[in-house]
Amino acid sequence: MRRFSRAHAGLLALALVLAAVPLLTSNSFYLDLAVRIAINAIVAIGLNLLIGYAGQISLGHAGFVGMGAYASAVLTTHWQFPPLAALLAGAAGVGLLAFLVARPILRLKGHYLAMATLGLGIIITIVITNEAQWTGGPDGMAVPAFSVAGLALAGEMHWYIVMALLLLLVCWCALNLIDAPAGRALQALHGSEIAARVAGVDVVRAKVQVFVLSAVLASVMGSLTAHYIGFVTPGQAGFFHSVELVTMVVVGGMASVFGSVAGAALLTLLPQALSSFEGWETVVFGAILMATMIFLPGGLVPSLRQRFAKGAH
What we know:
Blueprint: H1 2-24, H2 28-53, H3 62-78, H4 83-105, H5 110-130, H6 132-135, E1 141-142, E2 147-148, E3 151-152, H7 156-179, H8 181-191, H9 193-198, H10 203-229, E4 231-232, H11 239-252, H12 257-273, H13 281-295, H14 300-312
Antiparallel strand pairs: 1-4, 2-3
Helix pairs in contact: 1-7, 2-7, 2-10, 2-11, 2-12, 3-4, 3-5, 3-10, 4-10, 7-8, 8-10, 11-12
């Protein structure tokens, strides 16, 4: 009950923060940052279910983001799909691919698993870059506005409202999943796959399900990002984006839904805040991340929660 109450208190706090943002500013730049934070947070939550809860590393997760983005771009541009249909088709395609590759890839462990997922991400990036007649190649391609039943999402405020609601929904679903038997099964196999099997957990099935779920979430957000920005490039599927997503999970807090949100906010805002350090922003950024992991080794949210709990006692 304590954990249940804490999770719902966190959800309420997040809802209040999201509701306060448009009241505090209507500046399009800040709303754009808030939209990007929400997008990154949703992808990070899905990745945290895979890495933080199930203990399965993925260094190619941006490949699924890129696949979703290009599915929407190609299907709406070349095949005149409605944007929502393109998004759903992309998510279904990514889910099928994730299902097909999950069993052989997730049999691996440690650095072998990391290399396999990295290879998958690289393959996706190469295919996107080389199929220039469909994807525009390295230069990327334009994506039409997102619309449903003739109603188009236009302007940062509309996008912010949609993304804020979607972030709350994903957080709520993730929190409920974690407390459900399926979520406890994920945490069991993270601790020990052998013990999880003895306890009756279908380890392979649990791994495949969480891998597919995280991939589909990444695909949906990739599609929405493509429509929001209006342009997509192979960089969205690249290795550096994958590393950025993993860093959000680790810095925010492994096995923490709200840690994913905090990590996404930090890594989205820091480059903007450090833009005044001309030529040194990357060095300062790296130093801040190092200090965070040294002094808050469990990640921002779990470490701060633990320190406040100690202080309360």
